[in-house]
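MOLECULE: protein
FOLLOWS: sequence and fold
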Amino acid sequence: MSGACRFLSLCKASEVAEGKAIKVEKEGLILAVFKIDGEYFVTDDTCTHGPGSLSEGEIEGDVVECDFHNGSFNIRTGDVVAAPCMIPLKTYKARLQDDSIEIET
């Protein structure tokens, strides 16, 4: 069994503006790709509380507020910041490879 990591290319780095997010759908995953303080972070796009899209949420610092029920998550860790959300958000290890944002799968 090989323990080799596989990386999935999501988008070009230039597609994600500082302090913003974009929605990316790849290989059955629906993800939000964020750029915060020059770093890239990837989480599931769907809020753990309801049908809200986090890539369309309000971003302040490293916190994203869901546009559906206004619950919030830490973009870096996926931790819940504000109710009504109670379940942490899944995060993915992201890296910049050339001009591509990739996640480890």
User: Anything to note?
Assistant: The chain has one domain: 8-104. The mean pLDDT is 94.
